[in-house]
């Protein structure tokens, strides 16, 4: 099975420009599968659940760059702040305040990079905030005074529907990203998953989040 995963990874990697980061979504995958990708040089892995991320962090090499891509459980954030590389799914000032507070407690110079998750489709299972809500956060005097949180870009998830909608949604997110990049210096646009990463790349994604296309469908085993 590990050989299959390796072959899939290299096949997909050939299709993705070098300036686009591949984030392997390792949720529900066993340790050996992650280790295999690590041994062939991959370092960026994303998890949806804090508890699962922490368990993998304990067992895997410490130079892995862990990304939080699922809904944030504020009561568990303290467990990942010491080692998290990037949080993709920030949606409100409460989360930002808690991240900043924990980071400051961990080390006064600890900076946690975060993305604001923008809702770009109308599916109920896709969360996120509006452009106006994101702007309110970015213009907040409270945020501007924080020294332990840095918003570096935005993230979004497209519809699981016809391709025309996906194109429109990614186009919209790219437009917002361009505006934020010009105004706030953002440099990360996280969009595109296994089913639509090729479209996301056309619209300028800097990180694509790939899971099923690499691992296939599997039951949860850690």
Explain how this protein is built.
The protein is α/β, with parallel strands linked by helices and 222 residues long. The protein has one domain (2-215): Alanine racemase (TIM Barrel, Alpha-Beta Barrel), CATH 3.20.20.10. It has nine helices and eight strands. It has helices at residues 2-13, 31-39, 50-59, 93-106, 131-138, 141-145, 163-184, 197-202, 212-215, and strands at 21-25, 44-47, 65-68, 86-90, 112-117, 149-156, 188-191, 207-210. It has an eight-stranded parallel beta sheet. Helix 1 packs across helix 2 (31-39).
Fold blueprint:
Elements: H1 2-13, E1 21-25, H2 31-39, E2 44-47, H3 50-59, E3 65-68, E4 86-90, H4 93-106, E5 112-117, H5 131-138, H6 141-145, E6 149-156, H7 163-184, E7 188-191, H8 197-202, E8 207-210, H9 212-215
Keywords:
single chain, globular, 222 residues, alpha/beta, eight-stranded parallel sheet, TIM Barrel, 9 helices
Secondary structure: number of strands: 8
| Strand residues, percent | 15-25%
Shape: globular
The named CATH superfamily: Alanine racemase
Query: Which spans have pLDDT < 50 for at least 5 consecutive residues?
Result: none
Instruction: Quote the average pLDDT.
Output: 94
Question: What's the level 1 CATH class?
Answer: Alpha Beta
* Rg for CA atoms: 17 Å
Q: Biggest β-sheet: count, sense, barrel?
A: 8 strands, parallel
């Amino acid at each position: 099975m590990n050989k299959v995963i390796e072959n899939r990874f290299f096949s997909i990697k050939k299709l993705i420009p070098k300036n686009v980061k591949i984030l392997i979504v390792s949720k529900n995958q066993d340790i050996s599968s992650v280790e295999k990708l690590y041994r062939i040089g991959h370092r960026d892995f994303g998890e949806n659940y804090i508890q699962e991320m922490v368990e993998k962090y304990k067992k895997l090499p410490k130079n892995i760059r862990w990304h939080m891509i699922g809904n944030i459980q504020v009561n568990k954030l303290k467990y990942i702040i010491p080692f998290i590389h990037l949080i993709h799914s920030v949606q409100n000032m409460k989360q930002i305040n808690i991240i900043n507070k924990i980071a400051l407690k961990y080390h006064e110079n600890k900076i946690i990079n975060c993305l604001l998750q923008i809702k770009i489709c109308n599916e109920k299972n896709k969360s996120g905030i509006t452009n106006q809500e994101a702007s309110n956060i970015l213009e907040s005097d409270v945020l501007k005074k924080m020294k332990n949180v840095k918003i570096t870009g935005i993230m979004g998830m497209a519809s699981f529907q016809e391709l025309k909608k996906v194109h429109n949604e990614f186009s919209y997110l790219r437009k917002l990203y361009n505006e934020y990049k010009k105004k706030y210096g953002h440099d990360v646009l996280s969009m595109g998953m296994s089913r639509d990463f090729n479209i996301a790349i056309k619209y300028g994604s800097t990180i694509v989040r790939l899971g099923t296309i690499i691992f296939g469908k599997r039951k949860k085993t850690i």
